[in-house]
Amino acid sequence: MTSNNYQLSIINCKLINKSYGSHQALKNLTFDVNQGEIYGIIGPDGAGKTTLFRILTTLLLADSGTAAVAGFDVVKDYRQIRNIIGYMPGKFSLYQDLTIGENLEFFATVFNTTIEENYHLIEDIYRQIEPFKHRRAGKLSGGMKQKLALSCALIHKPIVLFLDEPTTGVDPVSRKEFWEMLMKLKAQGITILVSTPYMDEATRCDRIALMMNGEFLQVDTPQNIIAAYPETLWSVQTNNMHRLLKDLRKHASVKSSFSFGEAFHITVEKQFVMEELKIFLENNGHSEIEIQTIQPTVEDCFMQLTINN
Question: Would the pLDDT of 177 be above 70?
Answer without folding.
Answer: yes
